[in-house]
Amino acid sequence: MTHPILICIIRKIKRKERENREKVKEIIIGIVSMFFSFFGLLAIPLLLLVASNIVDWITGIMACKNRGEKLTSERSMKGINKKVSMYLLVFVGFLIDVLIQYAINTLGLPLVFPNIIASIVAVWITINEILSIIENIDDIGLKIPPFLKPILQRMQRETEDKISIEDSKEEKKENKE
Question: Which pLDDT tens digit goes with each residue over 110-126?
Fold first, then answer.
């Protein structure tokens, strides 16, 4: 038979554990809510970009051996710099969004421009990352469903085509030279 004082102590410990779990849940819900509130339309593409970066990094390391490549610290730093640059590119898209919204507000127009450029940049980069994941998995030796790569390439082309902006005549001339 268990001693009544011991039972009381166990109940207090369990109650405290429940209270701590609830506090952790509240903190997580608060952080997620702030994230979605701050990033708005950009939140989902950003989360997908983070997930695809992690998976690409893992599959890239796994594929190194099958490619006959050595994993070096120099190569790792180059990869980290590339990943950081991806987020900087999304940030540049965010800055463009802020500038566009500022111009809209300055003109007194009742429009909201919710991180569209940054979201498109994040989607485009995420598609590239997923294509890289597929290549890595192919190099690991797993057979890839034949429809995956064409679907992603089409999505990438569609993204590029939807926001394609014609170069001015001067820019076209400079590009030819």
Answer: 888 888 999 999 999 99
